[in-house]
Amino acid sequence: MTRRYNFCAGPAALPTPVLERAREELLDYRGRGLSVMEMSHRSPEFTAIAEAAEANLRTLLRIPDNYRVLFMQGGATMQFACVPLNLLGGGGTPNYLDTGIWSGKAIKEADHLAGSHLAASSRAGGYVDVPASDRIALSADAAYLHYCHNETIGGLAYDYVPDVAVPLVCDMSSSILSAPLDVSRFGVIYAGAQKNIGPAGLTLVIVRDDLLGRALPQTPSLLDWKVYADNASMINTPPTYAWYLAGLVFEWLKDDIGGLEAMAAINRRKAATLYDAIETSDFYSNPIAPANRSLMNVPFVLADEALNDTFLGEAEAAGLLNLRGHRSVGGMRASLYNAVGQQAVEALVAFMGDFEQRHG
Ligand SMILES: *Cc1c(COP(=O)(O)O)cnc(C)c1O
């Protein structure tokens, strides 16, 4: 069996040791004689799995005690609606920062539900950087400020945490667990699982407890964070297998990698390897301002776009999968999430060098 290098933006690569462990436990979970997929979510076995996953996540991210961790479904996209629904019960205007496609989708959903105020945008420059902190202009009645830490499609990330007097809400779908994080700076952090956490179907929400209970009255209970917090995220059947696999990923990060400082060092080296290769070539280019280059998603274009399909075909034949850029922007994109190793990046860079020599 050969596992190939997977640069998919999501659902993304999972650590091989995690999949091996899941395979070992697939038919008979630790002598129970059944699969995790076949367990009642209310059983003592699954309760232990669920609680251990949360405990390990809390350790990894050093989540303070006054924050609740919710295990939801619906993806980050469902949270685009949950954010205004859960935070506007006390009135006020939702404020947003705009840095590209994902923050734009969050804004659209807030507009649909409540109307929003654009506190800053990097659209005029073509989304090649993030707004400077001193350009953030909140509305007088701001209920919260929402931003997307890492724009997965554009390949840009904030190099600072906005410092505002209202709750800060962050979509961290494609960057959570890639580096240490000061959770106490945030009111709410959310992330779909299928990039850096586990398989699709699970969504993490980390919310400061004083922000619970502020939902708009029409909020459906399945979208209400407080209902999840009050019911250990089990109001209905949760995505049990995805939750279990996320727990295995948290254990891998903690015990095999050695925590998020160690993970961040690995991620910085991976990204530097690829960006250096792009920088030192006249054939490949990346448009993002150096300070805002994403460590997780690296878009690049070839000097001759007519070679795109040849590049992708040859890459696939060389065992390098899923390098096609998002359908809305074209070009290439290499996603370097936690489960993608230095070796994968070196294989990609070697392939790129070889391709440039033959076609450049
Ligand atoms: C992938 C992604 C989303 C959408 O996630 P779904 O789970 O498909 O809803 C939203 N925001 C960011 C930053 C993403 O990377």
UniProtKB/TrEMBL annotation:
Localization per record: Cytoplasm
Keywords: Amino-acid biosynthesis, Aminotransferase, Cytoplasm, Pyridoxal phosphate, Pyridoxine biosynthesis, Serine biosynthesis, Transferase
Cofactor: pyridoxal 5'-phosphate
Binding site for pyridoxal 5'-phosphate: A76, T77, W102, T152, D171, Q194, N236, T237
Signal peptide: none
Cofactor note: Binds 1 pyridoxal phosphate per subunit.
Modified positions (N6-(pyridoxal phosphate)lysine) in chain numbering: K195
Pfam family for this entry, one: Aminotran_5
Binding residue positions for L-glutamate: R42
Alphabetical list of Gene3D superfamilies matching this protein: Aspartate Aminotransferase, domain 1 (3.90.1150.10), Type I PLP-dependent aspartate aminotransferase-like (Major domain) (3.40.640.10)
Catalytic reaction list: 4-(phosphooxy)-L-threonine + 2-oxoglutarate = (R)-3-hydroxy-2-oxo-4-phosphooxybutanoate + L-glutamate; O-phospho-L-serine + 2-oxoglutarate = 3-phosphooxypyruvate + L-glutamate
EC nos: 2.6.1.52
Pathway field: Cofactor biosynthesis; pyridoxine 5'-phosphate biosynthesis; pyridoxine 5'-phosphate from D-erythrose 4-phosphate: step 3/5; Amino-acid biosynthesis; L-serine biosynthesis; L-serine from 3-phospho-D-glycerate: step 2/3
InterPro entries: Aminotrans_V_dom (IPR000192), Aminotrans_V_PyrdxlP_BS (IPR020578), Pser_aminoTfrase (IPR022278), PyrdxlP-dep_Trfase (IPR015424), PyrdxlP-dep_Trfase_major (IPR015421), PyrdxlP-dep_Trfase_small (IPR015422)
Domain Aminotransferase class V: 5-348
PANTHER family per record: PHOSPHOSERINE AMINOTRANSFERASE (PTHR43247:SF1)
NCBIfam families per UniProt: PRK05355.1, serC_1
Role description: Catalyzes the reversible conversion of 3-phosphohydroxypyruvate to phosphoserine and of 3-hydroxy-2-oxo-4-phosphonooxybutanoate to phosphohydroxythreonine.
Protein name per UniProt: Phosphoserine aminotransferase
Taxonomic source organism: Modicisalibacter zincidurans
